[in-house]
Amino acid sequence: MELPVALSGARASTLMWTAEHDVEPAALQQLRNIAALEYVHGVRVMPDVHLGKGATVGSVIAMESAISPSAVGVDIGCGVSAVRTSLTAADLPEDLRPLRLAVEAAIPVGFRGHEEWLDLRPFDLTKGLDVFWSRFKDLHPGVQKLEQRAHSQLGSLGGGNHFLEVTLDAEDRVWLALHSGSRNIGKELAERHISIAKKLPQNRDLPDPDLAVFLKGSPEMAAYRRDLEWAQEFALRSREIMMELFKDAVRAAVPGADVGFDSAISCHHNYVAEEEIDGRAMLVTRKGAIRAGSGDLGLLPGSMGTGSYIVRGLGNPASFRSASHGAGRRMSRNRARATYSVEDLIEQTRGVESRKDAGIVDEIPGAYKDLDAVIAAQSDLVSVVQHLRTILCVKG
């Protein structure tokens, strides 16, 4: 089948880099609901598409004069980073468990944060930090009591599908990769603004209340974009901090080695950007999608057992210069827990140093789509630079 295909029954132009029969019906209806909004210029659907809250994961939405906060989602600024090291597989210790435990000790996972504020001076990550935190007082009044928690969670992983990984490329070069977002503060901000949007007059009689929008020029839009931009910066700074902590743990695991690190590849996949689409200025939301402009480098993760791909964007205007953010789930977390056991997890992550317990069964590789098939479906959107196979994975 030649891709992309037009989504049947969609009002606005909606192109899909997957077949309709490969997408759950609820997600297809969700896409049609989005395309029915009068403010939507067009929707682009990535091959890792699946049902999301409010807006579909794996969707790119261009609006000329509006933003739907659900089209960004509650994990504002969620994204990935990858760094190639000077190490090869032969430089690593045979037993990777001590390294995994060291990473888990250095970088809080799950609901945890750092017990003490980090000294970021050794990492050269203090530029603009005081100004960044001074803007907290301007955020939504409902989050003001959360500033200390936000401080503690800056540079922490979180849970769900977020990860820290040691991977190997085709030449056995060691790469470090991570996936994280804006933690609790991003969620709190998003939920408050979604609630505000639902009460606005223009959002009456929507097919889905979660698709409520803010209109350009309104005070509600201005407040949302202020908080959105702060949360996106939080997420980016958090990934930079974690990567430095990750590097330190790797250095300690190979004593005596002079370890070098390349510049990071980093990209958001839940965010808003002002871009030109079809010759017009648009507000573009990507929820579970990355920008794939010509030459843009990105990391597309699979699952704990399948590794990731480093890709280079081809700048295809048909996709609004976008690509998938990874493999994407093929089953919900509840279904995964009902379908798979810890024994299944152990088997599917054989060869990967990771937790092997009931707490992460919902992250089992079998719960995700086939990453190779997702990559193949978007050959006109990105070119493959490297395939990275996972040898160590930290989950929240």
Which keywords apply here?
6-stranded mixed beta sheet, alpha+beta, 396 residues, single chain, 27% helix, globular, 7-stranded antiparallel beta sheet
- The structure class reads alpha+beta
Strand portion: 25-35%
Quote the average pLDDT: 96
Widest β-sheet, arrangement of strands = 10-6-8-7-17-15-14
**Which descriptor suits the 3D outline?**
globular
Spans of 5+ residues with little confidence (pLDDT < 50)?
A: none
- Number of helical regions: 9
- Tell me the total number of β-strands: 17
Main sheet attributes: strand count, strand direction, barrel closure: 7 strands, antiparallel
**Measured on Cα atoms, how large is the radius of gyration?**
20 Å
Characterize the quaternary organization of these chains. single chain
Helix content: 25-40%
Measured between the Cα atoms of the first and last residue, the distance is 38 Å
